[in-house]
Specification:
36% of the residues lie in helices and 16% in strands. It is an alpha/beta fold and 285 residues long. The protein has 2 domains: 181 residues, TIM Barrel (Alpha-Beta Barrel), CATH 3.20.20; 64 residues, DNA polymerase, domain 1 (Orthogonal Bundle). The longest helix has 24 residues. The C terminus is likely disordered.
Length: 285
Amino acid sequence: MFVDLHVHSNYSDGIFGIDRIIDDVVARDLPGFAITDHDTFDGVKVAIEKLKEIDGKKDIFFIAGAEFSSYDPDAGEVHIIGYFSDYSYLKMTDFIREFQSQRIERARKILKCLKENGIDIDEEDVIENENKPVGRLNIARELVKKGYFADITDAFNKMLKAGAPCYVRKKEVAPETVIEAILHNGGKPVLAHPTFLVNSSNWKFVEKLVSLGLYGIEIYHPKISKELAEAIKAAFKGRLVFTGGSDFHGDDSNLYIGKYGLSLYDTLEIFNNFADIKKQSITGG
């Protein structure tokens, strides 16, 4: 049983609410999990309160997280998860606000393009409010729901992925900027699902991130092959910690919370300098 360090809720582009996620964690008897929604800690806030409600009934380790998108000219899109102890994530409020506004702006541009291509999706069906992050996955689900495409993959391939008619690149934020913000506010930056490392020329890019304070790299993930994971471990052993998670969104019936992750022992080892982290473990000792 694993601590799943990469879970998305409906506070970003996941399907399930926090209650359902916690129910799954309890039902699967998982030792812990992290909420890592895109550009928001709103789900984290709810999870902390919900976990207090089951105090004394179940020992669950929890860690606050958020996943941020950045862009490098050579590596392409780079996702970085910031993990935070206790309520230190609240220091990221201003940084988060800028990311959220960029996501809303991008979504509106995509919806405008879709309309120009004969696909009419109401903005309110995708953008619930100005403070909730919205991504291409949210739009793809709506396109499938309205019957424009057979499934999410079809929607991405024909309209939303890079090179498709309505692909809109996010405002370019450098990985260095994200790492600096996470470190400045007391978090631990971890490079998420680095599939771009299949291109050997990108390994120097990770070396640069290590020099800037990158703490870890996610290698136990559905998109990372065992061969690539072993290569990463060999290259960065002793310099980075190795994390894992399912990247759960709720769309894939073959992917469940806890399918990927770390043991509780390993999780506590790599976050052992988070002074208050064990306080978030319900009944934790």
